[in-house]
Design goal:
Distance between the termini: 24 Å
Number of domains: 2
Radius of gyration: 22 Å
Oligomer: single chain
Bound molecules: adenosine-5'-diphosphate, magnesium ion
CATH superfamily of the largest domain: Phosphoglycerate kinase, N-terminal domain
Strand order of the largest sheet: 5-6-4-1-7-8
Length: 385
Protein backbone atom coordinates (compact mmCIF):
# COMPACT_ATOMS: atom_id res chain seq x y z
CA UNK A 1 0.00 0.00 0.00
CA UNK A 2 1.24 3.47 -0.76
CA UNK A 3 1.48 5.70 2.25
CA UNK A 4 -0.98 7.95 3.95
CA UNK A 5 -0.60 10.81 6.40
CA UNK A 6 -1.09 10.28 10.13
CA UNK A 7 -1.37 12.52 13.17
CA UNK A 8 2.43 12.57 13.24
CA UNK A 9 2.65 14.67 10.09
CA UNK A 10 0.16 17.36 10.85
CA UNK A 11 -0.10 20.18 13.36
CA UNK A 12 -3.39 20.00 15.22
CA UNK A 13 -2.77 22.43 18.05
CA UNK A 14 -5.47 25.13 18.19
CA UNK A 15 -7.00 23.69 15.03
CA UNK A 16 -10.54 22.55 14.41
CA UNK A 17 -10.09 18.84 13.80
CA UNK A 18 -12.96 16.89 12.28
CA UNK A 19 -12.75 13.25 13.36
CA UNK A 20 -14.87 10.63 11.62
CA UNK A 21 -15.62 7.84 14.06
CA UNK A 22 -17.90 4.84 13.89
CA UNK A 23 -20.05 5.39 16.97
CA UNK A 24 -22.69 3.07 15.61
CA UNK A 25 -22.41 1.03 18.79
CA UNK A 26 -24.75 -1.84 19.58
CA UNK A 27 -27.31 -0.71 22.15
CA UNK A 28 -29.86 -3.15 23.55
CA UNK A 29 -32.44 -2.04 26.15
CA UNK A 30 -30.52 1.24 26.56
CA UNK A 31 -27.39 -0.70 27.51
CA UNK A 32 -24.26 -0.79 25.38
CA UNK A 33 -23.72 -4.46 24.64
CA UNK A 34 -20.22 -3.99 23.26
CA UNK A 35 -18.05 -0.89 23.69
CA UNK A 36 -15.16 -1.93 21.44
CA UNK A 37 -15.87 0.89 18.98
CA UNK A 38 -15.61 3.47 21.77
CA UNK A 39 -12.45 2.10 23.33
CA UNK A 40 -10.74 1.93 19.93
CA UNK A 41 -11.46 5.63 19.39
CA UNK A 42 -9.83 6.69 22.65
CA UNK A 43 -6.15 6.85 21.54
CA UNK A 44 -6.96 9.40 18.81
CA UNK A 45 -9.27 11.44 21.03
CA UNK A 46 -6.87 11.51 23.98
CA UNK A 47 -3.97 12.47 21.75
CA UNK A 48 -5.94 15.34 20.21
CA UNK A 49 -7.06 16.54 23.65
CA UNK A 50 -3.45 16.52 24.82
CA UNK A 51 -2.35 18.45 21.74
CA UNK A 52 -5.00 21.08 22.43
CA UNK A 53 -7.05 20.56 19.28
CA UNK A 54 -10.74 21.38 19.12
CA UNK A 55 -12.24 17.99 18.37
CA UNK A 56 -15.37 17.77 16.25
CA UNK A 57 -16.68 14.22 16.00
CA UNK A 58 -18.67 13.06 12.98
CA UNK A 59 -20.54 9.76 13.05
CA UNK A 60 -23.62 7.99 11.84
CA UNK A 61 -25.92 5.92 14.01
CA UNK A 62 -28.29 3.26 12.67
CA UNK A 63 -30.26 3.73 9.48
CA UNK A 64 -32.53 6.77 9.78
CA UNK A 65 -32.63 6.93 5.95
CA UNK A 66 -32.07 10.65 5.54
CA UNK A 67 -34.75 11.72 8.03
CA UNK A 68 -34.43 13.29 11.47
CA UNK A 69 -35.51 10.57 13.89
CA UNK A 70 -34.95 10.90 17.66
CA UNK A 71 -34.63 7.12 17.92
CA UNK A 72 -31.30 7.43 16.08
CA UNK A 73 -29.99 10.48 17.91
CA UNK A 74 -26.34 10.43 18.98
CA UNK A 75 -27.08 12.49 22.08
CA UNK A 76 -27.03 9.48 24.47
CA UNK A 77 -23.70 8.49 22.92
CA UNK A 78 -22.26 11.94 23.81
CA UNK A 79 -23.14 11.30 27.46
CA UNK A 80 -21.68 7.82 27.28
CA UNK A 81 -18.47 9.02 25.63
CA UNK A 82 -17.95 11.49 28.49
CA UNK A 83 -17.58 8.52 30.86
CA UNK A 84 -14.58 7.27 28.89
CA UNK A 85 -12.76 10.60 28.74
CA UNK A 86 -11.44 13.18 31.16
CA UNK A 87 -13.37 15.98 29.51
CA UNK A 88 -17.06 16.61 28.87
CA UNK A 89 -18.40 15.92 25.38
CA UNK A 90 -20.55 18.75 24.02
CA UNK A 91 -23.35 17.94 21.61
CA UNK A 92 -24.71 19.73 18.53
CA UNK A 93 -28.26 19.01 17.42
CA UNK A 94 -27.27 19.09 13.74
CA UNK A 95 -24.08 18.12 11.94
CA UNK A 96 -24.07 21.21 9.69
CA UNK A 97 -25.24 24.81 9.76
CA UNK A 98 -26.01 27.14 12.63
CA UNK A 99 -26.41 24.49 15.37
CA UNK A 100 -23.08 22.89 14.52
CA UNK A 101 -21.31 26.28 14.27
CA UNK A 102 -22.71 27.42 17.61
CA UNK A 103 -21.71 24.24 19.47
CA UNK A 104 -18.23 24.34 17.98
CA UNK A 105 -17.70 27.98 18.96
CA UNK A 106 -18.67 27.04 22.51
CA UNK A 107 -16.20 24.18 22.69
CA UNK A 108 -12.73 25.15 23.96
CA UNK A 109 -9.46 23.94 22.45
CA UNK A 110 -8.69 20.60 24.05
CA UNK A 111 -12.43 19.95 24.15
CA UNK A 112 -14.83 17.75 22.21
CA UNK A 113 -18.11 18.27 20.44
CA UNK A 114 -20.10 15.41 18.94
CA UNK A 115 -22.31 16.38 16.02
CA UNK A 116 -25.74 14.81 15.49
CA UNK A 117 -26.17 11.76 13.26
CA UNK A 118 -24.83 12.43 9.75
CA UNK A 119 -27.51 10.19 8.24
CA UNK A 120 -30.27 12.60 9.28
CA UNK A 121 -29.27 14.20 5.95
CA UNK A 122 -29.78 11.98 2.92
CA UNK A 123 -26.91 13.85 1.23
CA UNK A 124 -24.47 11.99 3.49
CA UNK A 125 -25.06 8.62 1.84
CA UNK A 126 -25.34 10.27 -1.58
CA UNK A 127 -21.84 11.70 -1.14
CA UNK A 128 -23.33 15.06 -2.07
CA UNK A 129 -20.55 17.60 -2.74
CA UNK A 130 -22.38 20.57 -1.21
CA UNK A 131 -23.09 18.62 1.98
CA UNK A 132 -19.45 17.50 2.10
CA UNK A 133 -18.41 21.12 1.75
CA UNK A 134 -20.70 22.18 4.60
CA UNK A 135 -19.09 19.54 6.82
CA UNK A 136 -15.61 20.55 5.70
CA UNK A 137 -16.30 24.22 6.52
CA UNK A 138 -16.48 23.29 10.19
CA UNK A 139 -12.85 22.22 10.38
CA UNK A 140 -9.25 22.69 9.28
CA UNK A 141 -8.21 19.04 9.06
CA UNK A 142 -10.08 15.79 8.57
CA UNK A 143 -9.07 12.67 10.50
CA UNK A 144 -10.58 9.40 9.37
CA UNK A 145 -10.58 6.97 12.29
CA UNK A 146 -13.44 4.82 11.06
CA UNK A 147 -12.07 1.91 9.05
CA UNK A 148 -15.41 0.16 9.46
CA UNK A 149 -17.10 2.93 7.41
CA UNK A 150 -14.39 3.27 4.81
CA UNK A 151 -15.89 0.92 2.23
CA UNK A 152 -18.70 3.42 1.77
CA UNK A 153 -18.41 6.37 -0.60
CA UNK A 154 -20.24 8.75 1.72
CA UNK A 155 -19.75 12.49 2.14
CA UNK A 156 -18.13 12.20 5.59
CA UNK A 157 -15.66 9.60 4.35
CA UNK A 158 -14.88 10.51 0.74
CA UNK A 159 -16.45 13.83 -0.41
CA UNK A 160 -15.01 15.82 2.48
CA UNK A 161 -11.51 15.11 1.13
CA UNK A 162 -12.21 17.50 -1.75
CA UNK A 163 -12.05 20.37 0.74
CA UNK A 164 -9.70 19.32 3.55
CA UNK A 165 -6.46 17.40 4.07
CA UNK A 166 -7.18 13.82 5.21
CA UNK A 167 -5.06 11.97 7.73
CA UNK A 168 -5.51 8.59 9.40
CA UNK A 169 -6.41 8.40 13.07
CA UNK A 170 -4.61 5.97 15.35
CA UNK A 171 -7.22 3.23 15.11
CA UNK A 172 -7.30 3.49 11.32
CA UNK A 173 -3.52 3.44 11.21
CA UNK A 174 -3.35 0.33 13.42
CA UNK A 175 -6.04 -1.43 11.41
CA UNK A 176 -4.38 -0.75 8.06
CA UNK A 177 -0.93 -1.74 9.28
CA UNK A 178 -2.21 -4.96 10.86
CA UNK A 179 -4.32 -6.09 7.92
CA UNK A 180 -1.56 -5.15 5.53
CA UNK A 181 1.20 -6.99 7.37
CA UNK A 182 -0.86 -10.10 8.13
CA UNK A 183 -2.82 -10.50 4.96
CA UNK A 184 -0.71 -9.12 2.14
CA UNK A 185 1.31 -12.29 1.88
CA UNK A 186 -0.33 -14.57 4.42
CA UNK A 187 1.52 -17.62 5.65
CA UNK A 188 -0.06 -20.64 4.00
CA UNK A 189 -2.06 -22.76 4.12
CA UNK A 190 -4.68 -20.08 4.64
CA UNK A 191 -8.19 -20.81 5.91
CA UNK A 192 -11.24 -18.59 5.81
CA UNK A 193 -14.20 -19.38 8.02
CA UNK A 194 -17.38 -17.73 6.78
CA UNK A 195 -20.57 -17.92 8.79
CA UNK A 196 -23.52 -15.71 9.54
CA UNK A 197 -27.13 -15.95 8.59
CA UNK A 198 -27.43 -15.50 4.85
CA UNK A 199 -25.37 -16.33 1.78
CA UNK A 200 -26.85 -13.42 -0.14
CA UNK A 201 -24.91 -10.90 1.97
CA UNK A 202 -21.60 -12.66 1.35
CA UNK A 203 -22.06 -14.26 -2.03
CA UNK A 204 -19.61 -12.03 -3.83
CA UNK A 205 -17.07 -12.49 -1.07
CA UNK A 206 -17.28 -16.27 -1.28
CA UNK A 207 -16.97 -16.18 -5.06
CA UNK A 208 -13.83 -14.06 -4.80
CA UNK A 209 -12.33 -15.95 -1.89
CA UNK A 210 -12.25 -19.48 -3.29
CA UNK A 211 -9.41 -18.55 -5.61
CA UNK A 212 -7.42 -16.95 -2.77
CA UNK A 213 -7.65 -19.37 0.14
CA UNK A 214 -6.60 -22.99 0.65
CA UNK A 215 -9.49 -23.93 2.94
CA UNK A 216 -12.95 -22.42 2.97
CA UNK A 217 -15.11 -23.40 5.93
CA UNK A 218 -18.78 -22.55 5.68
CA UNK A 219 -21.01 -22.47 8.73
CA UNK A 220 -24.09 -20.70 10.03
CA UNK A 221 -27.25 -20.19 8.04
CA UNK A 222 -25.33 -19.57 4.83
CA UNK A 223 -23.97 -23.13 4.79
CA UNK A 224 -27.54 -24.41 4.50
CA UNK A 225 -27.92 -23.17 0.95
CA UNK A 226 -24.78 -25.10 0.04
CA UNK A 227 -26.09 -28.23 1.76
CA UNK A 228 -29.30 -27.81 -0.20
CA UNK A 229 -27.31 -27.49 -3.41
CA UNK A 230 -25.65 -30.82 -2.60
CA UNK A 231 -29.02 -32.46 -2.15
CA UNK A 232 -28.80 -32.71 1.64
CA UNK A 233 -32.07 -32.59 3.57
CA UNK A 234 -32.07 -29.46 5.74
CA UNK A 235 -35.68 -29.62 6.97
CA UNK A 236 -37.02 -26.22 8.01
CA UNK A 237 -33.61 -24.55 8.25
CA UNK A 238 -33.02 -21.04 7.02
CA UNK A 239 -31.82 -21.18 3.39
CA UNK A 240 -32.02 -19.24 0.15
CA UNK A 241 -33.12 -21.75 -2.51
CA UNK A 242 -32.90 -19.14 -5.28
CA UNK A 243 -29.14 -19.03 -4.71
CA UNK A 244 -28.54 -22.73 -5.28
CA UNK A 245 -27.15 -22.04 -8.75
CA UNK A 246 -24.56 -19.65 -7.32
CA UNK A 247 -23.69 -22.16 -4.63
CA UNK A 248 -22.96 -24.72 -7.38
CA UNK A 249 -20.73 -22.19 -9.14
CA UNK A 250 -18.78 -21.54 -5.95
CA UNK A 251 -18.38 -25.27 -5.27
CA UNK A 252 -17.05 -25.78 -8.82
CA UNK A 253 -14.72 -22.80 -8.57
CA UNK A 254 -13.34 -24.13 -5.29
CA UNK A 255 -12.51 -27.44 -6.99
CA UNK A 256 -10.80 -25.71 -9.93
CA UNK A 257 -8.66 -23.69 -7.52
CA UNK A 258 -7.71 -26.55 -5.20
CA UNK A 259 -9.58 -24.89 -2.39
CA UNK A 260 -10.83 -27.42 0.16
CA UNK A 261 -14.44 -26.59 0.92
CA UNK A 262 -15.63 -27.72 4.35
CA UNK A 263 -19.37 -27.85 4.92
CA UNK A 264 -21.13 -28.93 8.13
CA UNK A 265 -21.52 -32.71 8.40
CA UNK A 266 -23.70 -32.74 11.52
CA UNK A 267 -25.84 -30.16 13.25
CA UNK A 268 -27.48 -28.97 16.44
CA UNK A 269 -31.22 -28.41 16.16
CA UNK A 270 -33.88 -27.24 18.63
CA UNK A 271 -36.21 -29.77 20.30
CA UNK A 272 -39.02 -30.90 18.07
CA UNK A 273 -37.89 -29.17 14.87
CA UNK A 274 -35.36 -29.93 12.14
CA UNK A 275 -33.89 -26.49 12.01
CA UNK A 276 -30.13 -26.16 11.85
CA UNK A 277 -28.97 -23.75 14.57
CA UNK A 278 -25.33 -24.74 14.97
CA UNK A 279 -22.72 -27.13 13.63
CA UNK A 280 -22.33 -30.48 15.42
CA UNK A 281 -19.44 -32.18 17.20
CA UNK A 282 -18.07 -34.00 14.13
CA UNK A 283 -18.01 -30.74 12.16
CA UNK A 284 -16.19 -28.99 15.01
CA UNK A 285 -13.54 -31.75 14.99
CA UNK A 286 -13.17 -31.56 11.21
CA UNK A 287 -12.59 -27.80 11.37
CA UNK A 288 -10.11 -28.20 14.22
CA UNK A 289 -8.03 -30.76 12.36
CA UNK A 290 -8.09 -28.57 9.23
CA UNK A 291 -6.84 -25.71 11.43
CA UNK A 292 -3.96 -27.97 12.44
CA UNK A 293 -2.89 -27.93 8.77
CA UNK A 294 -3.08 -24.13 8.48
CA UNK A 295 -0.78 -21.24 9.34
CA UNK A 296 -3.30 -18.43 8.95
CA UNK A 297 -7.03 -18.20 9.60
CA UNK A 298 -9.40 -15.36 8.78
CA UNK A 299 -12.83 -15.54 10.37
CA UNK A 300 -16.05 -13.66 9.70
CA UNK A 301 -19.46 -14.82 10.84
CA UNK A 302 -20.42 -17.14 13.73
CA UNK A 303 -21.10 -20.74 12.66
CA UNK A 304 -24.29 -20.93 14.72
CA UNK A 305 -26.95 -18.81 16.42
CA UNK A 306 -24.43 -18.00 19.15
CA UNK A 307 -26.76 -15.53 20.89
CA UNK A 308 -28.96 -18.44 21.98
CA UNK A 309 -27.25 -21.13 24.08
CA UNK A 310 -26.59 -24.00 23.55
CA UNK A 311 -26.24 -22.97 19.88
CA UNK A 312 -23.07 -21.03 20.72
CA UNK A 313 -21.21 -24.30 21.23
CA UNK A 314 -19.72 -24.60 17.72
CA UNK A 315 -18.58 -20.97 17.50
CA UNK A 316 -17.18 -21.02 21.04
CA UNK A 317 -15.30 -24.28 20.45
CA UNK A 318 -13.73 -22.87 17.29
CA UNK A 319 -12.91 -19.58 19.03
CA UNK A 320 -11.15 -21.45 21.84
CA UNK A 321 -9.20 -23.62 19.43
CA UNK A 322 -8.05 -20.68 17.30
CA UNK A 323 -7.09 -18.70 20.43
CA UNK A 324 -5.12 -21.63 21.84
CA UNK A 325 -3.19 -22.25 18.61
CA UNK A 326 -2.51 -18.53 18.28
CA UNK A 327 -1.18 -18.35 21.84
CA UNK A 328 1.05 -21.36 21.13
CA UNK A 329 2.50 -19.47 18.16
CA UNK A 330 1.21 -22.02 15.66
CA UNK A 331 -1.41 -19.91 13.95
CA UNK A 332 -1.85 -16.33 12.76
CA UNK A 333 -5.49 -15.41 13.33
CA UNK A 334 -7.63 -12.49 12.24
CA UNK A 335 -11.34 -12.06 12.92
CA UNK A 336 -13.71 -9.27 11.97
CA UNK A 337 -17.38 -8.34 12.18
CA UNK A 338 -19.64 -7.06 14.95
CA UNK A 339 -21.22 -10.41 15.77
CA UNK A 340 -17.98 -12.30 15.34
CA UNK A 341 -16.25 -10.08 17.91
CA UNK A 342 -19.21 -10.36 20.27
CA UNK A 343 -18.90 -14.13 19.89
CA UNK A 344 -15.15 -14.07 20.64
CA UNK A 345 -15.80 -11.94 23.70
CA UNK A 346 -18.50 -14.35 24.80
CA UNK A 347 -15.96 -17.16 24.50
CA UNK A 348 -13.58 -15.08 26.61
CA UNK A 349 -10.87 -14.91 23.95
CA UNK A 350 -11.51 -11.44 22.49
CA UNK A 351 -7.88 -10.47 23.12
CA UNK A 352 -6.18 -13.75 22.22
CA UNK A 353 -6.18 -13.63 18.43
CA UNK A 354 -3.41 -12.01 16.40
CA UNK A 355 -5.78 -9.27 15.31
CA UNK A 356 -9.46 -8.42 15.58
CA UNK A 357 -11.12 -5.91 13.31
CA UNK A 358 -14.21 -3.98 14.41
CA UNK A 359 -15.20 -3.70 10.79
CA UNK A 360 -17.63 -6.10 9.15
CA UNK A 361 -18.35 -5.00 5.59
CA UNK A 362 -15.10 -3.10 5.19
CA UNK A 363 -13.10 -6.06 6.48
CA UNK A 364 -14.77 -8.37 3.96
CA UNK A 365 -14.17 -6.04 1.03
CA UNK A 366 -10.55 -5.76 2.11
CA UNK A 367 -10.29 -9.56 2.10
CA UNK A 368 -11.73 -9.69 -1.39
CA UNK A 369 -8.91 -7.44 -2.53
CA UNK A 370 -11.21 -4.53 -3.34
CA UNK A 371 -10.11 -0.93 -3.09
CA UNK A 372 -12.13 0.77 -0.36
CA UNK A 373 -13.47 4.21 -1.35
CA UNK A 374 -12.51 5.82 1.97
CA UNK A 375 -9.03 4.32 1.90
CA UNK A 376 -8.45 5.62 -1.63
CA UNK A 377 -9.44 9.07 -0.38
CA UNK A 378 -7.07 8.70 2.56
CA UNK A 379 -4.22 7.64 0.27
CA UNK A 380 -4.92 10.59 -1.98
CA UNK A 381 -4.47 12.79 1.10
CA UNK A 382 -7.44 15.06 0.48
CA UNK A 383 -7.21 18.68 -0.52
CA UNK A 384 -3.97 20.22 0.70
CA UNK A 385 -4.80 23.81 -0.19
P1 LIG B 1 -20.75 -10.38 11.59
O1 LIG B 1 -21.60 -9.35 12.30
O2 LIG B 1 -19.62 -10.85 12.45
O3 LIG B 1 -20.32 -9.93 10.22
P2 LIG B 1 -23.07 -11.76 10.59
O4 LIG B 1 -23.91 -10.58 10.95
O5 LIG B 1 -22.84 -12.04 9.18
O6 LIG B 1 -21.68 -11.69 11.38
O7 LIG B 1 -23.73 -13.08 11.19
C1 LIG B 1 -24.15 -13.21 12.51
C2 LIG B 1 -25.55 -13.72 12.62
O8 LIG B 1 -25.71 -14.98 11.96
C3 LIG B 1 -25.93 -13.97 14.06
O9 LIG B 1 -27.01 -13.13 14.40
C4 LIG B 1 -26.29 -15.44 14.11
O10 LIG B 1 -27.41 -15.70 14.96
C5 LIG B 1 -26.65 -15.74 12.67
N1 LIG B 1 -26.56 -17.18 12.42
C6 LIG B 1 -25.51 -17.98 12.57
N2 LIG B 1 -25.83 -19.27 12.29
C7 LIG B 1 -27.13 -19.30 11.95
C8 LIG B 1 -28.07 -20.33 11.57
N3 LIG B 1 -27.69 -21.59 11.49
N4 LIG B 1 -29.33 -19.96 11.30
C9 LIG B 1 -29.71 -18.66 11.39
N5 LIG B 1 -28.89 -17.65 11.74
C10 LIG B 1 -27.61 -17.95 12.03
MG1 LIG C 1 -23.67 -8.80 12.03
Amino acid sequence: MSSFLTLDQINVTQQNVLVRLDLNIPIRNQEVSDDTRITRALPTLNELIKKDARIIILSHFGRPKGQVNPEFSLQPVARLLTEYLDCPVHFASDCIGEAADFAIRNTPYGGIVLLENLRFHREEEQNDPYFAQQLAQLGDIFVNDAFSCSHRAHASVVGIGDYLPIVAGRAMQAELMALQSILKEPKRPLMTIAGGSKVSTKLELLTNLVSKVDYLVLGGGMANTFLLAQGTDIGESLAEPDLIEQAHTIIAKAQENNCTLILPQDYATPDGAFKIMDIGVTSIRTIQSALDQCQTVVWNGPVGVFEVPPFDKGSVAIAHYIAQKTQEGKLVSVAGGGDTLACLNKAGVGDQLTYTSTAGGAFLEWLEGKTLAGISALLAGGSQS
